[in-house]
Prior knowledge:
By secondary structure, the protein is an alpha/beta fold. It has helices at residues 3-25, 107-116, 119-135, 152-161, 203-216, 246-258, 270-279, 292-301, 309-319, 323-340, 362-369, 374-380, 383-389; strands at 36-44, 53-61, 64-70, 79-90, 92-97, 138-143, 169-172, 177-178, 199-200, 221-225, 227-232, 238-242, 262-267, 283-286, 304-306, 343-344, 406-409, 425-428, 431-435.
Amino acid sequence: xxxxxRCCVLFTVSxxxxxxxxxxxxxxxxxxxxxxxxxxxxRLIDGKAEKALDNVLIVIxxxxxxxxxxxxxxxxxxxxxxxxxxxxxxxFIDTHTHVLLNGDITAEDYDKQLLKDSIPxxxxxxxxxxxxxxxxxxxxxxxxETEGAMYADTDVKKAIANGEVPxxxxxxxxxxxxxxxxxxxxxxxxELKVPTGVQYxxxxxxxxxxxxxxxxxxxxxxxxxxxRKYHFEADGVLHSMVNFTDEEARAIVDETHxxxxxxxxxxxxxxxxxxxxxxxxDTIEHGDGLTxxxxxxxxxxxxxxxxxxxxxxxxxxxxxxxxxxxxxLEKAAFQKAAKKGVKIAxxxxxxxxxxxELNAAREFQYYADYGMSPMQAIRTGTSVAAELLGWQEKLGxxxxxxxxxxxxxSGDPLKxxxxxxxxxxxxxxxxxxxxxxx
Length: 438
């Protein structure tokens, strides 16, 4: 060992020892005591009981609920928030969003964003959209692909988690996947290199590599497009063209599960849904063409359905073709699936509509209009959605030990579900982001 190297080693060891002694001699900094908040709730829909509970005291310490007590007394020194004239619910969860997208009724709407808006600019709008979601009462979301904005969803998620911008806690799917040439942008001259809304993936090896790459860059979920070209045939079933071979789709799912993540499949037609079920996915997104045998298979295997009704109804008039008929078909499928016990989780496809134009909580109203009780509809966007995310130990209900994610409305959503579109109070992790209760 050279003299120079020996000197470096001695200096490094000495510095470490001195630093360690200095650190040992320092008194530990006293952590600031966690803030205690007591909320008086006039009514509480806790996500568990079949009825609302009256006159409940919710005590929060830091980011966690520590007690939920009927007719309770606030502890000494607690900050008291009086919501005694309001209804409190668990924070809402939207399991299908696109914060990097701002409406795509037509191909022109979509293409313009990918061609004219830079990814940094879209990320700025994504942060804005996350704040809109939070102010509408959605304290958690699953964002199911960036639509050409690469891995910018992981940046929005990081900025929120670090407290740089307000927004829901997020699970993200980054880029989504289709085989080559099966997702926009399409139709441009072959001489032009245009962006694509997804990652093109071909072959079993390519599928496994793409999964590994997306997870490496921060994907919590893997999403792929199971089908396209939705059409009706003489049997009255909504059919579709399946994108991946069964071997490719199974490779996506198998590799994702091997790496400890889950898979969401965009599957609208019956053929695409069947292919996704064969592949072993965890959630079916959209699912307009669900058949009863497919519903039975989903019940048997505990696969979640995320119907995204609000976006279909919103874009159908502008898209024309089969879209209006597809909305009607999904209504019938929803009613059958609910009766059969399919796990239905609320998801809106926000971003498919402009975040500024439509409140995502409209989805709750569709579920009630389609036959669910208001309580059942509320649970799709609270306790059931929390289970889909794998966060049921911390989210989805108002009880001791859960994160302090709460929303409040002035009226009673069990009597008028549209109240959920008028959230007046939002708390996430014990921090109040909105309070318009007077």
